[in-house]
Amino acid sequence: MPSTRLTELLGIDRPIVGAPMAGTATAPLAAAISAAGGFGTIGASTSRWTADRPDWLRAQIRAVRRVTDRPFGVGFILSYPNADDLVAVAIAERVAALCLSFGDPAPFIADARAAGIKTLVQVQTLAQARAAAAAGADAIAAQGAEAGGHTGALGTLSFVPAAVDAVSPLPVIAAGGIADGRGLAAALMLGAEGVWMGTRFVASVEWEGEAWRKDRVAAASTDDTIWTLAYDLASELPFPDGIGGRVLRNAFTDAWHGREAEIAGRRVELQRQLETAETDADPRDAAVWAGSGAGLIHAVEPAADIVRRVVAEAERCLARWGARVGAGPKDG
């Protein structure tokens, strides 16, 4: 695949960024994606702050470096209370890039730049894209509502090219519902310089989550996800207004989606219910964060195989359509 401005910016071979899924995109997944020519990331943030979290992140960064010398990054949810301390660790360790989301990236960009570190800022609106560009971001990840986990409300197909127009000449990374080479090819045609994929890597050998969650993603169809506030409200997750979570439908979403006003009054009960579900690995209540691209995923595979196949599929798509365009209209 020809280089893009994203591959040139990050010093990588393939224009695929592994999403920094909080707590589950750890060193093995980041290293596997980067070693395969993409850009792996560690998801540093967690809603459960503990004093040893900076030490955990430092150990994760060094674990990646024991496996590969390829570039990789660390991702942060800026609305979480521990963001400052964790960003400081990543800067001190001189990772290749910070991936910043769900908050104001401006306070972190200057320090990253002074350390020679790139900043990839994930946004859900054009206003956020413009603000991140004005703050000095090196690339913008335009995240559509098809994404798994936490996301906004705009569709990927319309949001990505709008973001490309809004922040040119900064490179834009397309995110949301992209799980195969057709999605990568489409993103490039929309003007993006690469893709940001999370759900596809949930169904990977190296993803840190439980096997039953991987299997549920691999078995899901495109119809099986829902964008909901139910889990965030029940668990009091600190995400900004306008952000919800896309998960696989289950008994919990069937019972509580659309009943936001009632959740606050029963929060203690619901938190206990969700904690039990996690302990028991009960998919009827436990969240499986996944995007609509889950319907394109059919097996749990090594992350390196996923990277290579997505790029090869994209190359075939682009070559096939290039040949059709080159052939021109038929006479008669």
From TrEMBL:
Q: Which domain of life is it from?
A: Bacteria
Return the InterPro entries for the record.
Answer: Aldolase_TIM (IPR013785), NMO (IPR004136)
Q: Which SUPFAM superfamilies match?
A: Inosine monophosphate dehydrogenase (IMPDH) (SSF51412)
Q: Which CDD domains match?
A: NPD_like
Enzyme class, first EC level, given as a word:
oxidoreductase
Keyword entries, A-Z:
Flavoprotein, FMN, Oxidoreductase
Q: What is its EC number?
A: 1.3.1.9
A molecular function annotated in GO for this UniProt entry is: nitronate monooxygenase activity
Q: Which PANTHER family match?
A: 2-NITROPROPANE DIOXYGENASE (PTHR32332), 2-NITROPROPANE DIOXYGENASE FAMILY, PUTATIVE (AFU_ORTHOLOGUE AFUA_2G09850)-RELATED (PTHR32332:SF31)
- What's the name of the protein? Enoyl-[acyl-carrier-protein] reductase [FMN]
Source organism of this protein record: uncultured Thermomicrobiales bacterium
Taxonomy of the source species: Bacteria, Pseudomonadati, Thermomicrobiota, Thermomicrobia, Thermomicrobiales
